Hints:
Chain B is mostly helical. Helices cover 68% and strands 3% of the residues of chain B. Chain B has a two-stranded antiparallel sheet. Chain B is globular, with a radius of gyration of 23 Å. Chain C has helices at 47-54, 77-83, 100-107, 114-128, 143-155, 173-188, 200-206, 229-237, 297-305, 328-333, 354-362, 376-389, 406-418, 436-451, 463-469, 492-500, and strands at 9-18, 21-31, 36-40, 62-67, 70-72, 85-88, 161-165, 192-197, 209-214, 217-222, 255-264, 274-282, 286-290, 316-318, 321-322, 336-339, 369-370, 373-374, 424-428, 455-459, 472-477, 480-481, 485-486. In chain C, strands 13, 16, 19, 20, 21, 22 and 23 form a 7-stranded mixed sheet that branches. A 6-stranded mixed sheet of chain C has the order 6-7-8-3-9-10, with helices on both faces. Chain C is globular. At the A-C interface, α7, α8 and α13 of A face α2 and α3 of C.
Amino acid sequence: MSIDFIIAVIITVVGASTPILFAGLGELVTEKAGVLNLGVEGMMLIGAIAAFATVDLTGNPWLAVVVAAAAGAAASMIFAVLTLSLSANQVATGLALTIFGGGLSTLIGQGFTGRAIHTFDTIFPDALAKDPIGRVFFSYSPLVYFSFIMVALVAWFLRGTRAGLILRAVGENDLSAHSIGYSVIGVRYAAVAFGGAMAGIGGATFPLVLTPLWAEGLTGGRGWIAIALVVFAGWRPVWLLAGAYFFGLLGTFELYAKASGASWTSVLPSEAWAALPYLATVVVLAIISASKRAGGNAPACLGKPFLPTT
Amino acid sequence: MRLKLEKRAEPSRFMLYASPIGAVLVTMIVGAIIFSVIGYDGLGAVYQVFIAPVTTSYKWQDVALKASPLILIGVGLAVGNRAAIWNIGAEGQYVVGGLAGTGVGLLTQNFTGPWILPTMLVAGFIGGAAWGAIPAGLKTRFSVNETLSSLMMTYVAIHLMNYLVTGPWKDPSGYSFPQTPLVTADQTMPIIIPGTQVHLGVLLTLIIAVGVWVLMSRSVFGFQVRVVGSAPNAARHGGFSQKQTVWLVFLLSGGLAGLAGIFEVTGPFQQMSLGFPQNYGFTAIIVAFLGRLNPIGVIIAGIVLAITYVGGDMAQSALQLPNASKGIFQAMMLFFLLASDILVRYRLRFVSRTPAPAPSPSRSAA
Amino acid sequence: MVVNPPLRLEVVGITKRFPGVLANDHVSFAVKPGEIHALLGENGAGKSTLVKMIYGIMQPDEGEIRWNGQPIVVANPRAARKLGIGMVFQHFSLFEALTVLENIALGMDAKIPQRQLEAKIREVMATYGLTLDPHRIVSTLSVGERQRIEIVRALLLNPRLLIMDEPTSVLTPQEVEQLFDVLRLLAKQGCAILYISHKLHEIKALCETATILRGGRVVDTCDPRQETSRSMAEKMIGAGLKDVTKPASRTIGREKLVVNRLSVPAAGHFGVALRDITFNVRAGEIFGIAGVAGNGQNELLLALDGEEIGDDAGAITLDGERIGRCSAKERRLRGLSTVPEERNGHAAVPEFSLSDNSILTGRDRLGMVFSGLIKPGVAHEYTGKVISTFAVKATGAAATAGSLSGGNLQKYIMGREILQNPKVLVVSQPTWGVDAGAAAAIHQAIVDLAVAGSAIVVISQDLDELLALSDTLAVINGGRLSKPMNIADVTIEELGLLMGGIHGEAGHPADKEPVHAA
């Protein structure tokens, strides 16, 4: 394998990992507050179409990121009202949100099928990305760099700030947090909104970074992988980064299987490579869940509705 | 005056059954408004999606054909959700059931006899149950969250189907279309209403749904499922095994989804093709909830959702309303149902604001 | 003192209603600076509701709270803390996965850098003679240490009023003494203390004033040092105390339940391992197991009733038959009944009707199942019998378990097991959170069952209950059971030491040190 090939792989992997990294980070914060939102896939789709439509209409990819985040957060508010204010079942509501996001994005996307958009220009001067090593570091979309910043920010927020401590406390023991005087519901609304915004940006990554074309259901289950990723990472942001890149790598095999028929990928049919990330997710979940430590890291109130006794 | 939620001493039976009807009605009203706002004929859309399939008698058979898999899968999921076991991979189990039955079909193409169809049906059930056994085993053995694993296995199932349909199982005389050979006469579901496409599977679905209702309401198994779902510790105390319940629920719901799959292959589809996954497995989640996790309720909810499937197609041709709109209507039904759930356990009360207990304002002792 | 200082806290005519319940009915009382004031009453008398209003968790419907003579509205706990009101909860509001320091930081309203906070914590601990490592994760601490976090958290705020809600229910007698020392020192410095309890001897030892609540109303304010325990108990309960009648001449028969070196590994992170539990219970005998919460009581119950099944068939013997590897169902069929501590969600399913709850544990012994199908009529009839025999207040067999009060649900659960005529009955915390009337009825039912010839195990944190009921008593600590003692030979002192056993200062739960005297 040539160095060029390896660099090409790295660049592809970075792109493929970014959506699940964003969505996973958002879900991680949501879950740390004790809320299990299974609507990530739906929110990603809504973010994706919001971003696509914004670029198509305004030509501004920066604005598209903002709109996608807002759209994802707005979608997450449906979930928040149902589960937090009306204490509906979180699993069922998350599923409904995924179905809703799929329908809504397809409906809006109808008008955009087959259109191409122009997205971000590179932010670093082309000269920096000339030699192979430079390409590895300087050739990406701004969203990729933004995802790294967000990993650091989330890690710092959870570990080093008082607000992060309160958020963890709410996820750990909602009744205690309530009795000390923190607004459990308020903190959870904020965490769900952040999760929605990040899922929205994760969805926006598909049209803005990966393929500038609209396709129905283009997230292809990445939202679910993002949720699995949070378990895999043991609710730790830096591990999430590692996990996202691992799954990103698995996801790129299919591309190579399709692109170069005669290569090493031909040992398996392309469908097998396509199924690999999902199978790997199941296997990794099995390994992680089997070890007791992972369960110990899960926020104690995850998925349970908050019902103060008054 | 303000609204206050007050916990009921006992859950309201009336609300339990009224809220699904309310959810459908509110979906129609809000749906009409939303579609008007985004520039469609809102009232027309609601009429086409919800009413037209009922008033157009030649569409009834379509409704029956769509309702059948939704009910069959929905009944299985209702059992699972009762036990708080979240099988959201029914779509994959449906596909694998179809594949397993088709596999038997391919082997028996050159045979004749009345045993062929039942064998395919059994294979379909086993195929779905086997696919359901994967998340069940992972959950009981490694405590893997079944929501994620069952869904992941759905993607694997669809890729497996794509491979078989475009590769080894492709119809050699099919002009290289990605589809399996058509089923033979002995592999086809008999039509039970002459002049329509309504096949035996529709009747079997109703029989199975009623059977599951008896199972859930009268048997120890049904009791076990309900206890495990409501209070896992009480279930252990009562001598019921959580793991056994997980297995039984996944084998049953997976098997029924697989059966729905092979009903489709031997009924409406007559073969496997890339268009075989119809999202029934996901829509059936809505069916199960809208039917209040009660098999009889699931029959009604399955018909309602089937109406929206048929109505979605009608709206597309009548109003150029994109087919995806039906998904929005379906999700809205579930949203409104979940939102109204709180009324089962709480009642809404208007209360006058209490006067401030102390005359003087709060004072902080700094 | 020249002038009387203003009253630190005055509560005037406080009323609080919940749907169907009048929790507080024009309650009034006052606390002076430096006074240790008891708030005495049974479970359900309205003590917790009252202090929740003082601490701002709830708002009163009527009445006034005065602070240093000024009427105030305590909008929320934050406002309460700003005033100088601290509270230590009965159920600790702690976060298991966080450190001691993080837990304390969460309770502080002011933003203090962690290092400064840590210094302040060490200072407070030195002042009051408390020891605690600020960097330990809470889940690794003993119950007494956890309470210390709450106390330190309250003390850091320099409270002018400290509310202690049933602080000793989880402590050993020795830990209780240490706590009292801290409280006395605090009071000497002028802090008022509102001490909530239903333990009369503690109140006599600690408090100078007691306000007694019954059914949401103040029935008396007295000086507990001038009262006898019995007189206070009668005020608290209302009618004259009804003693449990325990016939002196009971025939203790042959061994029914024999537990021989029962060991169970710890389940998960926070579980307790059972080690070499050995005891036997004879027909007609009531065997008490005392201990501080979280020392393996729950695990022992699960191991006995078959919810956790071990490898050693001979570890548990029922009527000579080895049942150590039998399932819960098989054990129940052989006549072993159990009542776990947690009523809602363990002993009973709150959303289910009482009739269905009878099916939960009675279906096989009482013929409620025929070839896989349930016979609802049999369950309904049996449930009706339980309701009438045990005077359960319920609308009928179709009422959901969740709609019953704690005491009535407990009576139903006890009745459900007792009417199955178990050979052995294992009960955990039989009267926890139950009103006195129901508690007396439950105690009587336990004694009657023993008289009828069943072997009974009572696991409880309530020493008074155990001393009243048991014939034989043992103490569980850190998953080990002490040698059984005849009830006549037991001293409170000895029990206290056994209960404290391994839970000394900063003791690690896994340590196997022998008992050390304080």
